[in-house]
Amino acid sequence: MKTEEVLADLRLRFPNEPEYHQAVEEVLSSIEDVCNERPEYERLGLIERLCIPDRIFAFRVSWIDDKGRVRSNMGYRVQHSNAIGPYKGGIRFHASVNLSILKFLAFEQTFKNSLTTLAMGGAKGGSDFSPRGKSNMEIMRFCQAFVAELWRQLGADTDVPAGDIGVGAREVGYMYGYYKKMAREFTGAFTGKGISFGGSLMRPEATGYGNCYFLLNMLATRGIDIKGKRVAISGAGNVANYTAKKLLELGAKVVSMSDSGGSIIAPEGLTQEQFEYIFDLKTYEGGRLSEVPERYPELQYHSGQRPWKLVQCDIAMPSATQNELDESDAEALLAGGCFAVSEGANMPSTPGAVHRFIDARILYAPGKAANAGGVATSGLEMAQNSQKLSWTAEEVDAKLQGIMADIHAKCVQYGRVDDSFVNYVRGANIAGFIKVADAMMAQGVL
Ligand code: NDP
C-alpha cells in the first residue's frame, strides 16, 4: 500500500480539513509495514474505506434564546465505522467545531474503541454552539433541538453518543431525555447519563483516572515511582480535573492546570484544598482560572499562556484540546527533564512535538491509548444498561484498571522497538487497526 497516495487523494477530495489529514497521516505512517505484508488490503481498497467515514449527517439546529430570538447553529454526526460494534463516540459543543475536527475525532475513536477490547465502532458528533454564557434553559432548548434532528440515527445497538468538550452530565441528561421521548424507549442510547437513570458509577472519573492508570503502567516499565513526581496538566474540565484528583491521591505534585483563558502555576504543587477549590470553580460555578489568585495569591496566573514553558515538570498530561502542545513546547519540556507524556486530550501534541518525544525515547502515550478509559467505561455503562444492572464503583474501577493494563500490554506488544524503548504510537495504531481491518475483511465490501 502506498500511504502517500491514499493521503494525497484524501487531501485532494477533502481539502481544508487539516486535523483530519493529520490524524490519518499519523495512523497510516504507523501501519505501512503491516499493510505491505497483506497485499489483499490494497485490492479491497481497505485502507481508503477505513479512512473515509461510513456516513456523515450535517444539519441546522435552530433554538430560541432567553430573549425570544431564534438562533441557528450547525450540528453534525460522523459515523466512522461500525465494523466491530455500534457507532460510539462523544458529542462536542464548542465554537471551534467543524467537520475536519469531527472527522479526525471519529477516525481516532475507531482505533481507540478497538483497543479497549469492547465491541464498539467509532463515531463523533457536535455543534459549533458554545455553552459558555448560556443559561440552563438555553442549553436545554439547544440540546433538545439538536436531538430532534439526530434521534433517528441513534440507538443502543446503532449509535451511542456520550459527552466531550462542552458536554457533561447535564447536557447528556437533556439529550437523552429528548431521545427517550422521541424514540419511546428507555435504553442505553447515550452514555455518561446520571446515575438515577442508567449512568455508570465512575464514568465521570474514568478518562482522567484511566490516563493515570496508563501512566502507572508506563512508569512501571522503567521502575519509576509516581510519588513526588511533578506533573504539568493542561485543561480544567472533566478529564483534567479527575487526572489531578487521582494524581494527588497517588502522591504526585500537580504543578499546573489551565483553561482557555490561561494557566495556573503551582511551583510546589497544588494542595488538596487548592485543587478542590479549582474543581468546584470549574465544575459547578462556571468560573475562570483567572479568579484563582484572588483566593490563593501564592498561585501564579499567566493569561493567554499554556503551561508547558512556564514550569519544570517530570511528566506532562495535556488534557484540554487538540494541537495544544507544539514542537517548541516539546523542546521546553524535554530541556526541563520531562520523561513521560500521557495524553488525556485527543491529539493534543502536534506532529512535530510527537517526533521530538519519540526521538528523545521518553515514555510517550498518545491519547487514543491513554484516554481510552472514558469510552471503555462507556462500554461498561452499555453492558450494565443491557443487563438492567448497576455495578459498584469498586467493580467498575477494577475493570477500568484491567482494561488500561490490557491496552498498555497491546501497545508494548506491537510497539516494542528494542529492550529499552516502546513506541506507543506505533503500538496503539497497529493494535487498533488489525482488529478493525480483520472485521472489515470478513464482512465483505460494504
Ligand atoms: P471539558 O469541556 O470538560 O474541558 C475542556 C477543558 O479544556 C476546559 O478547561 C477548557 O477551558 C479547555 N479548552 C477547551 N478548548 C480549549 C482551547 N481551544 N484552548 C485552551 N483550552 C481549551 O472537556 P473534557 O475534559 O471532556 O475534554 C478534554 C479533552 O479530552 C478533549 O480533547 C476531549 O476530546 C478529550 N476526551 C474526553 C473524554 C471524556 O470522557 N470527557 C474521553 C476521551 C477524550 P474553558 O473552561 O475555558 O472552556
Q: What Rg, in angstroms, do the CA atoms define?
A: 21 Å
- Structural class call reads alpha/beta
Oligomer: single chain
Fraction in beta strands: 15-25%
Sheet with the most strands, sense and barrel status: 7 strands, mixed
The overall strand count is 14
Bound molecules: NADPH dihydro-nicotinamide-adenine-dinucleotide phosphate
**Helical content class:** 40-55%
Low-confidence stretches: none
Number of helices: 17
- Spatial arrangement of strands, main beta sheet: 9-8-7-6-10-11-12
Mean pLDDT: 97
Question: What is the distance, rounded to the nearest whole angstrom, between the alpha carbons of the first and last residues?
Answer: 20 Å
* Overall geometric form: globular
Describe the structure.
This protein is an alpha/beta fold and 446 residues long. Helices cover 48% and strands 17% of the residues. The chain has 17 helices and 14 strands. The protein has helices at 3-13, 18-36, 40-43, 46-51, 99-115, 136-150, 169-183, 203-221, 238-249, 272-283, 292-295, 327-335, 351-359, 367-370, 373-387, 393-415, 424-443, and strands at 55-64, 70-81, 87-93, 122-127, 159-162, 230-234, 253-259, 262-265, 300-303, 315-318, 340-342, 363-365, 416-418, 421-422. The strands form three sheets. A seven-stranded mixed sheet has the order 9-8-7-6-10-11-12, sandwiched between helices. A five-stranded mixed sheet has the order 1-2-4-3-5, sandwiched between helices. Strand 1 and strand 2 form a beta hairpin. Helix 12 (327-335) runs parallel beside helix 13 (351-359). The radius of gyration is 21 Å and the shape is globular. The two termini are 20 Å apart. The structure holds NADPH dihydro-nicotinamide-adenine-dinucleotide phosphate. NADPH dihydro-nicotinamide-adenine-dinucleotide phosphate (NDP) binds next to helix 9.
